[in-house]
Amino acid sequence: MNAIHVALLMLMLTVAMPAALADSPRPPVAAANAAEGIAPGRPALEFINTGFENASPLQWETDADGTVHVRLLYDYERNSPNRAAGHWHFQLQGRPGSDLTLVLHDFDNIYNGKPGAAVSKKSICYVSPDGRAPSGRAPSAGWSRSVVGGSWKVVPAEFLAGNLLRVRVYLDGPSLYLARLEPYRLADLERLLSEIRGHRLVQIDTIGKTVEGRPLEIVRVGDPKAPYRVLLRARAHAWEPGGNWVVQGLIRSLLEDDETSRKCLKRYCLYVLPMANKDGVARGLTRFNMLGRDLNRDWDRPADPKLAPENHALETWIRRMTEQGKPLHFAMDLHNDEGGGLHISRPPIENLQRHLDRMKRFEQLLRKHTWFTEGSSGSKFRNPGTIGEGLLERYGIDACILEFNCNWIAGLKQHPSASAWEQFGRQLRLVYFDYFDEVDAASGDAR
Ligand SMILES: [Zn+2]
């Protein structure tokens, strides 16, 4: 076994046993470094790697006491004072056995025209030796519930005056990934799509392209002749991966071919736009699309095909569904924020009360079937131009925004994780099953 074989073996062991390694006592650093031929004078931090998908654009420097200052770059909204930086995802490369202190800068966002910090005392950070996401198995070959866990874990972050965040990490090996949340990248979406493509209950249609030409898919799960139709959109905002994990959990669970999924798919057909802001996700941006448009704004008017092709494609698809006699009965847009909760749409329409009654019922079902506990926005809350407001006002679709708290899941008393969000998606199956039962009974005009 030569040195390359040893290195490969070490790599395989690292990939196979991240949890065990993370929990093991620190190795004798000098001995480990000597074994790897690392000179004692090697700096603790050699490089910050952002040359991969979803890595955040940033600048960095190390000060005299060794603290690493990471300055995130904002993305900007067109014709607006709004700017956003809240996503971080990068790889530290340095000397194994090093303790590193990082200070993250530039969270001074402007949101809806007002200053607002993207982090708080509640903020946390995720680290992983290999950046690996949890994975599942293909449904066609004896679809199994078992999901292989990823390697991300939470480390504390300290909120400092001036909207800074200090994070202390330990380099077990020569590199360590840091991220705001467990990332869900285009590669993760591709893996899901290749897993389900060809399934008899799945159809994947490309409905348009992003500003940079990436394909936008609508994933249909179920029988298009089912009496009800649900649309879920995820990832309008690039920094918010929660919705991607949720729709992955929902899609996988509906394809399990168990009694629950069979009865659900007799009642409703699911349509998902899994990653609206693919360009932003690929480039590690925070909020806006590549031409400075917020994909969860301006839904009170037709989407601009040049500046917001992601919204134009979705709106064209929604209109076509309606024209084909297959209107949507429910639409939900999935987000992350610092609070969590269901944002109820209240545009000035006739029969708003009927919508509010249905949403009350929906919230009750979320509480009954999922770990949701955060509650819904009050009667004074309005955020005109969101997709929830726009689809209700302009297309008569019962539509809402669901925010997932990015720091804490109160219903589970734990920090967010990919598996907790996938679990939520699985639990959503029965929410819609019961919701449409009620809609059916309450009014004849729902179909
Ligand atoms: Zn959002």
In short:
The protein is of the alpha+beta class. It is built from eleven helices and 21 strands.
Task: Quickly list its features.
seven-stranded mixed beta sheet, 447 residues, 2 domains, 25% strand, 21 strands, alpha+beta, Aminopeptidase, globular, Immunoglobulin-like, binds zinc ion
Walkthrough of the structure:
The longest helix has 25 residues, at 418-442. The protein has two domains: 3-179, Immunoglobulin-like (Sandwich), CATH 2.60.40.3120; 186-442, Aminopeptidase (3-Layer(aba) Sandwich), CATH 3.40.630.10. A hairpin with a 5-residue loop joins β2 (58-62) and β3. It has helices spanning 3-16, 18-23, 29-35, 186-196, 242-254, 259-267, 278-283, 309-323, 352-369, 387-395, 418-442, and strands at residues 45-49, 58-62, 68-72, 75-76, 83-84, 89-94, 99-105, 108-111, 114-117, 124-128, 153-156, 158-160, 164-170, 175-179, 202-209, 215-221, 228-234, 268-273, 330-337, 341-343, 398-405. With 447 residues, it is of the alpha+beta class. It starts with a helix and ends in a 5-residue tail after the last helix. The protein has eleven helices and 21 strands. The model is unreliable at 6-25 and 137-147 (pLDDT under 50). The site of zinc ion (ZN) has 4 residues, from loops.
Which CATH architecture of the largest domain would you pick? 3-Layer(aba) Sandwich
CATH class of the largest domain: Alpha Beta
Strand order of the largest sheet: 15-16-18-17-19-21-20
> Average pLDDT value?
90
Total strands: the figure is: 21
Give the helix level as a range of percent: 25-40%
